[in-house]
Amino acid sequence: MFDDLIRGVRAHGSLFGSSVLTPPWALHFVDGAPLTLCTVLGGGGWIVRENHPPEPLRAGDTVVVRGPETFTFVDEVGTRAEPVACGEFCATPEQGGTRHRLGWHDTAGDGPGATTLIVGAYPVRGEVSRLLLDALPAVLRVPGGGTGDAVLDHLAAEVALDTPGQQVVLDRLLDWMLVCTLREWFDRPGGEAPAWWAAQRDPVVGEALRLLHTEPAAPWTVAALAARCGVSRATLAKRFTDLVGEPPLTYLTRWRMTLAADLLAGRHTATLAEVARTVGYSDAFGFSAAFKRVRGVTPSAFRRSAVG
């Protein structure tokens, strides 16, 4: 399930930057991107948001900030530096985006006290990936020393180069860093990960979730799903509800409607009947009734609002 949710969240060169900062400095990230990942390769600073306590960010740490709220990265709380506005439009258009060597606040070097910051702003495409946003706090911070350290080593080596294809490599490394950060945050001791995160690791419920996600249009019943998972109907129903928080078929309906919402928004020429069949409904009427019950609007109204 996590794979489905993260699939639509990808870095792109026009939303990527790297800076070597010498105090005092203040970078104000003004775009309010759905997700912004900040990783410190060296040095440190503070994430400051309006009406929230400052969040420290030290060498090796990674912070993910959920939009649309903007934030500032500063050398110290109360810095005397004038904020430099940073975002998509700080890119260099003739190069198709912000290259790391043309970062938002270049300096002459990386002398004493300098901080090297890697930033990726992530658009979030579609309703499926929005389920991931719903599971995240406004700010999550993962300290260095975990699974992301290997990615940091690769990032540090790559930003020191200037070679063909580098932007693609940096983007994919940033995606790797985001996945490692989210997994580590969900797995942290005493954390409050969404129910589906832990449920994926249950041998029975995890298999049921995998089947529902890979075969959403199949004519599922609880009995059929239980048979595929190798347990009784009663065992699956109880175990699934206990771990996920709702019965299997209720979950399936919500998942189908999430997929349908992306199809309605992304495939403008698809008829309602075609969308209905894709997500497991034999006719448009039954699909429309289910969609309105789950999403609160008819499929046609949702499509108009999505493409308008």
Summarize the structure.
This protein has helices spanning 2-6, 126-134, 149-159, 166-186, 195-199, 205-214, 222-229, 233-244, 248-266, 272-278, 284-295, 299-307; strands at residues 16-21, 26-29, 35-42, 44-48, 55-58, 62-66, 71-74, 84-86, 115-122, 139-142. It is of the alpha+beta class and 308 residues long.
Provide structural commentary.
The structure is a single chain. Helix content is 42%, strand content 17%. Helix 3 (149-159) packs antiparallel against helix 4 and helix 10 (272-278) packs across helix 11. The chain has helices at residues 2-6, 126-134, 149-159, 166-186, 195-199, 205-214, 222-229, 233-244, 248-266, 272-278, 284-295, 299-307; strands at residues 16-21, 26-29, 35-42, 44-48, 55-58, 62-66, 71-74, 84-86, 115-122, 139-142. The strands form two sheets. A five-stranded antiparallel β-sheet has the order 1-9-3-6-10, covered by helices on one side. The protein has a five-stranded mixed β-sheet with strand order 5-4-7-2-8, with no helix packed on it. A hairpin with a 6-residue loop joins strand 4 (44-48) and strand 5. With 308 residues, it is of the alpha+beta class. It has twelve helices and ten strands. The chain folds into two domains: 2-186, Jelly Rolls (Sandwich); 198-307, Arc Repressor Mutant, subunit A (Orthogonal Bundle).
